[in-house]
Known about the structure:
One of its GO terms (molecular function) is FAD binding. Pathway: Cofactor biosynthesis; L-ascorbate biosynthesis. The chain crosses the membrane at residues 48-66. This is L-galactono-1,4-lactone dehydrogenase, mitochondrial. Keywords: Membrane, Oxidoreductase, Transmembrane, Transmembrane helix. With 583 residues, this protein is of the alpha+beta class. The protein has a domain at 271-346 and 360-531: 3-Layer(aba) Sandwich (Vanillyl-alcohol Oxidase, Chain A, domain 3). The chain has helices at residues 2-23, 38-65, 112-125, 175-183, 200-205, 243-249, 281-294, 331-349, 365-375, 380-395, 405-408, 435-449, 496-521, 536-549, 552-562, 571-576; strands spanning 90-93, 100-103, 106-107, 130-131, 148-149, 157-161, 166-170, 187-188, 222-229, 233-237, 258-265, 267-268, 271-279, 297-302, 309-316, 399-404, 417-428, 458-464, 480-490, 524-525. The strands form five sheets. The chain has an eight-stranded antiparallel sheet, with helices on both faces. It has a five-stranded antiparallel sheet with strand order 6-7-11-9-10. A three-stranded parallel sheet has the order 3-5-4, with no helix packed on it. It is globular.
Amino acid sequence: MQRWLYYRRCAGLLRSSLGRSQTLNPRPQLDFVRPFSSSSSDSEFRKYAGYFVLILGCGVATYYSFPFPANAKHKKAQIFRYAPLPEDLHSVSNWSGTHEVYTRVFLQPENLEELEKIVHDANERGQKIRPVGSGLSPNGIGLQRAGMVNLALMDKVLDVDKEKKRVRVQAGARVSQLVDALKEHGLTLQNFASIREQQIGGILQVGAHGTGARLPPIDEQVVSIKLVTPAKGTIEVSPEKDPELFYLARCGLGGLGVVAEVTIQCVDRHELVEHTFVSNMNEIRKNHKKWLGENKHVKYLWIPYTDTVIVVQCNPLSKWKKPKMARKFGEEEAVQHVRHLFRESLKKHRTSESPDEPDIDQLSFTELRDKLLALDPLNKDYVVEVNKAEAEYWKKSEGYRVGWSDEILGFDCGGQQWVSETCFPAGTLANPSMKDLEYMEELKKLIERENVPAPAPIEQRWTARSRSLMSPAWSSQEDDIFSWVGIIMYLPTMDARQRKEITEEFFLYRDLAQTRLWDNYSAYEHWAKIEIPKDKEELVDLQTRLRKRFPVDSYNKARKELDPNGILSNRMLEKLFPLPSTI
């Protein structure tokens, strides 16, 4: 029955296409009446016999090209519906839902031996098994349709050396798991990125970072790595064992081996005092050098179309000498202005088909912001109003709070979003270049001049240099510092049309920053946020640009030696760093 439906559908499509071809024939026949002859009869017979064979072949090809699960053959056929996905087909997407693949190969080993066998067997067969972590990278850098390996089940803390303050952990452990395990030993990590759900292997491989001009990116905390490689099996690299490979592999983008275990240098567990206050560009210019040097952690949150800059400074409680001042307003009072704007905006944008008003009293500030932006995300004037409401929220959130470092340094980034984050040199700690403030001043002017519907915040952070050769913050000079600036557009809706429009607007926003700013400031994108250009010339330009900053030849040489069959690679690596055989 199913096959008959396939054949019938193909026949209908063929009849339709034949009808169109006759109608659109540029040289129509003028002989409206033709004499009957046996030769024309034979010709007609051969023509329609050929059509029948073509229809039959299309039907067979269609049937076997789109397999149904076993239970589908007993279901009623429905014309113009997609065939159900096979049960063994996994859908894997990143957290923001901006990148998704379907794969039949998604492997999760439970121990090192299983991982070694997976990598060995895949290399023998030429089967792709791209390492993928928690899927938090905005660009889906770990995704590979042909196959993936995920270490979520390899999440054990293997050893804690309290004397050296080091921990050896499996790469599938999440940051939150590791921090909880270290508490009983009185240890913690030196610095944190905004999100705690990243796997250790992933946060290391993409060069993630926290903030603090005296603190390097997270890869610099790693003192030893155990890699499972396709060509050389399991190897351990460190500054003492193969230092050249070690400094390549620390930020290796998953292309040099599957990171199985990591040894991390920790610090004593400590409390921080967080001071949040609102400032402006004039005040920041006066105090910027001092704030970078005095504060262990510092970041700025810039609000587009306003003069508001939120400054967040964090320092160890043990060294804090100033009196602590509680927030003047509680969270409920701080968020009231945002709730009021949402209720008023909802009245203006409500239609007969609008859903009922959500219980906004239960929503956090970032959830409210998402709801607000969802009403009209690309209306610049409306986005400006939302940004002003956010500025008011932060003014009422000024004050101090105390907590353990892993609690204080986290940041609620909001809902699904597009992100582009760049890293560029900002002088030295002793002598900041002030290029970081010049960058922000130019970026804000660019946004206003081009009427970009840019939501808040634009987050700016700093780190010390990294010695990892593929880190955007790599430098041979020990006292160099780097600034990291992230621009965003939220995806506060699941409506496919609206998400597409936001995506297009975001890439216009990103392209403005790229063409007007990046080269002038030697800015390079975070590896978890870089996107592959669709235009071939733009891709060549990107490849050329990356070669100016990173040791691409050394990286590709290591890829060929450790993964000669390219089983750990994916489209992103192949486009960014083409090997001679793939150019």
